[in-house]
Amino acid sequence: MFGEKFVAGGQSPNDPGLLVGLRELVVQSFWAMDGLPDWSVLQAVVRREPALLQRLTESMEQRVTDLAALIARRQGCVDGDPFPRLAAAVISHLLGHTVQEFFAIRPAVEGEDSGASPSFEEFAALLTRNFELATALFTGACDPADHHRREGRP
Fold it and tell me: What's this model's pTM, rounded to 2 decimal places?
């Protein structure tokens, strides 16, 4: 459903661009989940069962392949074009980085009830910020020296 909307967006005269379309696709996909996972439980399980992380990584590989196919359709890429796969891998890494960053910001608390679990809005805001940073990286819209000044560094 969201995938077809993403593909069709590339044909629209009002298309805001691939990166914005990808951000919308990822955020909508997370919204479509039946509530945000209980991050503290997920984090605790992954820590106790490291093999689960490997399985999650393998399932992400299939998602990268699926996303690459959507990107290829949206952009009208020919078979064998490396761009869709690279774009999907970059977005996948950005998403993985955001999840890790989210876990670091909101560490699991032993005995924490699900009502105290981080909200989807917190995660979506962090994901949106990271997409904006990626946009700046790829468009050169942000002068690295300016970014350091905003962060309070010389």
Answer: 0.71
